[in-house]
Amino acid sequence: MTTTAGRIDYGERIPNNVGLADDRRLQRALESWQPRFLQWWRDMGPELPHRDVYLRTAVAVGRDGWAHFDRVVLPEYRWGIFLAEREPGRTVGFGAHQGEPVWQQVPGEYRSELRRLIVVQGDTEPASVEQQRHLGMTAPSLYDLRNLFQINVEEGRHLWAMVYLLHAYFGRDGRDEADALLLRNSGSSDAPRILGAFNEPTADWLAFYMFTYFTDRDGKFQLGTLRESAFDPLSRTCEFMLKEEAHHMFVGTTGVDRVVERTAQLMREHDTDDIRSHGGIPLDVIQRYLNFHFSVSLDLFGGETSTNVAGYFTAGLKGRWQETRRKDDHRLVDSLIAVDSLVDGRPASIEVPAVTGLNQELRREYVQDCENGLNRWNRVLQEAGVERRLALPHQAFNRHVGAFAAIHATPAGEVLDDAEWERRRDEFLPSRADLDFVGSLMQPVYEPGRIAGWVAPPRVGINDHGFEYDYVRFA
Ligand code: BYC
Q1: Of ligand 1's atoms, which has the minimum distance to the CA of residue 400?
Q2: CA dist 52 to 13, 352, 472, Å?
Q3: What is the CA(196)–ligand 1 centre distance, in A?
Q4: Contacts of 228 (CB under 8 A, 6+ apart)
Q5: Model's pTM, two decimal places?
Q6: Ligand 1 atom nearest to 358, measured from its CA
Q7: DSSP secondary-structure letter at 48?
Q8: How many Cα atoms sit within 13 Å of 165 on the Cβ side?
Q9: How many alpha carbons lie under 13 Å from residue 201 in its C-beta half-sphere?
Q10: CB–CB of 331/96 below 8 Å?
């Protein structure tokens, strides 16, 4: 079946470019998982009745022209398995196996670690769809609604990507893990999702934009490190997922841009910071949402010192961000690295063996990338003539994983005792009143070309269509 020059065959029940038709056992196993996925999608996926949505679907994995746009009814979206093309002669880029040919099968000694990484990655994908389930009821425009559905179907496809690896390379355990990915649910008290941020509700569209900016960006960095993996099928699947991921972060970046733009407009128009009565979201509420989503996303990188990450790196399972472009020995046997720590109960920095500090290293790259968003949003404020600025909170703020989980700190990094933290919490994180207020603005606007009053329209539409295009049609 499949590929001529990376093209995907949609004649198959499960579209793929991995030669599924030549492996009947695997094909049957995945075909028996497919109805369970569809059932999960019906139970947990987007909740809005519609006629069709203008969506992109992957049609090839090559460099140019990988996506095709068309109108689709969501449950009929063709979720498939797409790996980037194999790079001939690829060798392991780092760790103890550096220079050896990459692996097409899972080495026995790394089986459980690799399975764990794939399961954790796979668990986040359906989690985000569950978190966003109700947002279709309140989108500010058809353009935004379409973007939500696009993200949801692609997160569904990313789940397929990990399920393929579990079925194809991990035998019975892999099939059990694939089933379990549909049994855990975001926020469930009995069977929650694995990582903290994926059990938090995404209750409104400001939260959605923040999530797609900050949490999807963790996805970018984690997928970037797994793309370096010596296990070639994992590397190739992450490579292709990163292509889709770029649009998710675009939705977050421009979504926050548009909220800030509208807020600044209303502040100028009414000459006040408190624009609630004019139907806008005040800057301090935006800052508290930002504080929350940034801090829970920092937790996703794990502890500053971790024997897990040292093991992953040395074994060649998970590299560093842009590993191959780095100019060091790619083994880090004798190097040291500075990581965050608590010294006498205060945030400080200590040196540890570099391999154990790689979670912090990745988090550092991530924080630098997040700064770009802040610069953009502050430019929007500046251009509108508003003096106030948004800022990333201190890394000790609101942490539940790593060294800083042991203390409370303000967004400025000042350490607070428990009582003071409780007293001042609502200054820093979205309060009940903030959530209720933002919730009250969330009224759907589903006429082509119209938009809710709390957010500015986008500058460009999708695939050369304007903002007025009817991206979603209803029955
Ligand atoms: N919540 O040694 P440690 C995405 C656990 S997002 C709960 O410090 P390690 C997406 C950890 O599992 C990208 N538990 O850290 C975005 C470990 O448990 P075990 C997702 C946590 O293992 C938006 C223990 O604490 N992909 O794609 O070096 C929409 C000690 O951990 C948390 C990945 O994360 C937490 N926040 O690193 C859709 C990549 N943090 O094993 C999708 C795969 C840590 O002792 N995962 N723990 O029982 C990994 O690389 C690593 O598992 C982590 C943790 C980076 C998450």
Answers
A1: 36
A2: 21, 54, 6
A3: 9
A4: 93, 94, 235, 318, 319, 320, 323, 324
A5: 0.97
A6: 28
A7: -
A8: 28
A9: 7
A10: yes
What is the tens place of the pLDDT at every residue in 296-344? 999 999 999 999 999 999 999 999 999 999 999 999 999 999 999 999 9
Closest ligand 1 atom number to CA of residue 221: 13
Question: How many residues make up the chain in this entry?
Answer: 475
Q: Diameter of the chain by CA atoms? A: 68
Residue nearest to atom 19 of ligand 1 (CA): 308
pLDDT in tens, 52-108: 999 998 877 776 667 889 999 887 898 999 999 999 999 999 999 999 999 999 999
Q: How far is CA 290 from CA 194, 283, 347, in A?
A: 23, 10, 21
Render the burial of 300-332: b for 16+ CB within 10 Å, e for the rest.
bbbbbbbebbbbbbbbbbbbbbebeeeeeebeb
Would you say 349 and 340 are in contact if contact means Cβ atoms under 8 Å apart? yes
195 Cα: distance to centroid of ligand 1 (angstroms): 6
The amino acid that residue 39 corresponds to is Q
